[in-house]
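ok so I'm stuck.
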Amino acid sequence: METGISELHPSLIECIMRFVEVCSNDKEMLLEFRNVISAFLRILCEWVPSTRNVISAVLTSASSISLGVLLQLKISQEGPPLIPSLSGLLLGLCMENMDPSDELGGWSISSIMNLINVGLGIGKFTQLLESTKAFFMHTTNMGESVGLWGCSEVERSHFIEWYRTAVSIVRRKAIQELTLS
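replied:
not stuck anymore, here's the structure
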């Protein structure tokens, strides 16, 4: 079996996706590295709208299925469901920035919508995104449950503004796709 260069030297996005996948399959690692996973998901969310290559790299990764696993994750911790929310946000931002004819690694706009509809339901999906937004906007004592974005008032306010904008974009796209189908 011949090993390709991409397997020997995976891209940064592939390394992130592999790490997220490993953690998504191990509850202890998921808990231990929740702040790292959240930071990685946010980085990917920030990159997706400006770079179509990132969408392709994320969705063609063999580890991309872990985003669906994390989206449906039940987290028994205090605070917002940050990892599922950011996973849903990432998939939604990919969907928003894909062309209607795109199929990347088996993912298309309709397959992402199907995951949302079948995996959670559109109501629970929007509730998931909105509950995280509400938590950040209305909670003053956040503790460790929100990771990096609760440490500084400046970072918290930046996160809230970024997250609110991204959620609006994803909700609009999900409703648009729901009404088209």
